[in-house]
Specification:
Elements lengths: L1 E5 L4 H12 L3 E6 L8 E5 L4 E2 L9 E4 L12 H25 L3 E7 L11 E2 L9 H11 L2 H5 L3 E7 L1 E3 L4 H11 L4 E3 L8 E3 H13 L5 E5 L7 H12 L5 E3 L1 H8 L1 H7 L4 E2 L2 H6 L8 H9 L7
Parallel strand pairs: 1-2, 1-5, 2-3, 5-6, 6-8, 7-14, 8-12, 9-11, 10-13
Antiparallel strand pairs: 3-4
Length: about 300
């Protein structure tokens, strides 16, 4: 296949490019600067500009664009940046996919589509969107793909959880603290904390690319949901460190503001029904296995 990727320089994009090339696929990368390599093509989503050569002969487009929600405090301007960095590139790519006749579009989204107030209620791809800022963001992000889906493009919406990789993301931030014995639960610890190993994040994306039966929303989450307290204990075991601390909810709210209530102190108990029904087999079906793989301690996978 020829796969065109937007957002190829991020944590997931870098791993996806490597995996696809290992499997013998051709990868073209969209970059927001002057193209400097044969596999690069310039684009500027803010100006709706895309080098028309990029999609020639493409079998699929993967859109992983989006500013990190945890990069800084959620001011009004940053919340607008979170929207613009997702919805504008998706608008441009959906239109370009239709114009070029590309048959497949994989578009990033997030598991917080369901909101953060689901409590113990299990949610899957048939569950409705929540009403929080992140839920509304994910809903509008997904709606931007509608021109492609309406035109007959097989469109897959990747409702991903936090990807566990020592190279960055959530675990990249937590690992140094836990290694020093400064780990512990956040708030009461009863909130669910959706997760996915890096191997399964990339495995699910490649599976969706290569299986024509996969379309619409898919929860890219581990099949065994855990609470924040359970996650904290599992990470402590993987690193052989105690997890004695408790960060009170009020302290988190004071430290990071709205993001605490949206993405830290609440989380959906999401399960990957669509992926499992399509036949995907998880490499790391438990949080213990996922964390052991991420921190390099396979003996602790439990």
């Amino acid at each position: 296949m020829k796969v065109v990727i937007a957002g190829s320089s991020g944590l997931i994009g870098t791993a996806l490019v490597a995996a696809l090339r290992r499997d013998g696929h051709e990868v073209a990368r969209l970059v927001r600067r002057k193209a400097a390599a044969p596999d690069e093509f310039a684009w500027n989503p803010a100006r709706a500009h895309l080098d028309e050569r990029a999609l020639r002969g493409a079998d699929a487009v993967v859109n992983l664009c989006g500013a990190s929600v945890g990069r800084r405090r959620w001011t009004g301007s940053f919340k607008q940046e979170l929207r613009d960095s997702r919805i504008t590139p998706t608008d441009v790519l959906a239109g370009a996919v239709v114009a070029a006749g590309v048959p497949v579009l994989l578009n990033a989204s997030g598991v917080h589509y369901y909101g953060g107030d689901t409590g113990d209620r299990v949610v899957d791809e048939s569950s409705p969107a929540g009403s929080s800022f992140l839920a509304t963001l994910c809903r509008d992000w997904e709606m931007a793909t509608e021109p492609a889906a309406t035109a007959g493009t097989r469109t897959v919406l990747l409702r991903s959880a936090a990807v566990l990789s020592r190279a960055g993301g959530l675990l990249g931030m937590l690992h140094p603290l836990y290694a020093l014995g400064l780990g512990g639960r956040l708030g009461n610890g009863r909130q669910y904390m959706p997760w996915i190993s890096m191997a399964d994040e990339i495995g699910a994306l490649v599976f969706a690319l290569t299986h024509d039966t996969v379309s619409g929303p898919i929860n890219v989450v581990g099949p065994a949901p855990v609470t924040n307290a359970e996650f904290s204990r599992a990470l402590g075991r993987a690193l052989h460190r105690p997890t004695p601390l408790v960060v009170p909810a009020f302290a988190l709210s004071a430290l990071v503001g709205e993001m605490a209530q949206e993405a830290i102190l609440r989380g959906p108990r999401a399960i990957p029904t669509a992926l499992e029904e399509a036949g995907y087999q998880f490499h790391h079906p438990t949080i213990g296995a996922a964390l052991a793989a991420a921190v390099g301690r396979p003996g602790d996978a439990r």
